[in-house]
Design a protein that fits this description.
single chain; alpha/beta; Rossmann fold; 7-stranded parallel beta sheet; 7 strands; globular
C-alpha cells in the first residue's frame, strides 16, 4: 500500500473516471471526484466543479482539503468531444474542447501543486488518448487537446521533479464504455481489427495502470506516456 492517501479524480461520475475512482477506493485511498452532474462511486466524496471555471475548482479543492486532507494524487480525467471534419469545425468547437481537456487539466494541476510543493511529494496523472498520438479524422480539436497533455506533463516534470512530484500521461485506446457499446457491431469489428489485442479494454484495466502510477512502485517514473491500447498506437 502506498503512503499517498487522498486522490482527486476529475470527471469521476462516469466512464473511465468512475472506474478510476472505484479502483482507488478498492486500494484503500480516500477518494474525491469532481463532476458537473451525477455522483462518483460509493465511498467517494463528490464535489460539484467545472474544469473550465477556476473559481469552482478552487472551491472544490477547499472542500476536499477540509474533509479528506490535501490532494496527494491528482488524476485529470475530465474531457469532452466535439467531433467533426475540419472544414465544418467552428472556432468555438475547437476552443471549447481545448478549454476543457487541456486548459482544464492546467487549472486543476496548478491548484493541486500548491499542497504537493508544501508536502514535497505528489502524483499528477493526465488522462490522454491514443488519438493524441495517432491523430483522428474528425478529431482535430480532441487530438490537439490530448497531445497537449504530453507537453504539460513533461514541463511539470522538469519544474517539479526535484520536489518529489511526478507527472505522467496515460493514453487509453478503445475502452468498453456506454459510448463504444452504442456503435454498430460492424463498426466495432472494424476497430477491433486495427487493435493487435483484438478487443477493447475494460475501464478497470486503465484504472489499474493509473493506480500503479500513483503508487510508491512508480516513484522514479515521470514525464512518461503509458499507452493502454492493446498495441494500437505502437511506435508513437
Amino acid at each position: 500500500m502506498t503512503t499517498a492517501k487522498t486522490v482527486l479524480v476529475t470527471g469521476g461520475n462516469r466512464g473511465i473516471g468512475y472506474a478510476i475512482a472505484q479502483e482507488f477506493i478498492a486500494q484503500g485511498y480516500r477518494v474525491a471526484v469532481t463532476a458537473r452532474s451525477g455522483e462518483g462511486p460509493a465511498g467517494s466524496l463528490t464535489v460539484r466543479a467545472d474544469v473550465t471555471d477556476s473559481a469552482s475548482i478552487d472551491a472544490a479543492f477547499t472542500v476536499i482539503e477540509a474533509e479528506l486532507g490535501p490532494v496527494e494524487v491528482l488524476v485529470a480525467n475530465a474531457g469532452i468531444t466535439r467531433d467533426m471534419l475540419l472544414m465544418r469545425m467552428s472556432e468555438d468547437d475547437f476552443t471549447t474542447v481545448i478549454d476543457t481537456n487541456l486548459t482544464g487539466a492546467f487549472r486543476v494541476v496548478k491548484r493541486a501543486s500548491k499542497a504537493m510543493l508544501k508536502a514535497r511529494r505528489g502524483r499528477i496523472i493526465l488522462v490522454s488518448s491514443v488519438v493524441g498520438l495517432l491523430g483522428g479524422a474528425g478529431q482535430v480539436n480532441y487530438a490537439a487537446s490530448k497531445s497537449g497533455l504530453i507537453g504539460l506533463a513533461r514541463s511539470i516534470t522538469r519544474e517539479l521533479g526535484s520536489r518529489g512530484i511526478t507527472a505522467n500521461v496515460v493514453a487509453p485506446g478503445f475502452i468498453e464504455t456506454d459510448m463504444t457499446a452504442e456503435l454498430p457491431e460492424n463498426t466495432q469489428a472494424d476497430y477491433k481489427k486495427q487493435i493487435p489485442a483484438g478487443r477493447f479494454a475494460t475501464p478497470t484495466e486503465v484504472a489499474r495502470v493509473i493506480a500503479w502510477l500513483a503508487s510508491d512502485d512508480a516513484a522514479y517514473i515521470s514525464g512518461a506516456v503509458i499507452p493502454v491500447d492493446g498495441g494500437l498506437g505502437m511506435g508513437h
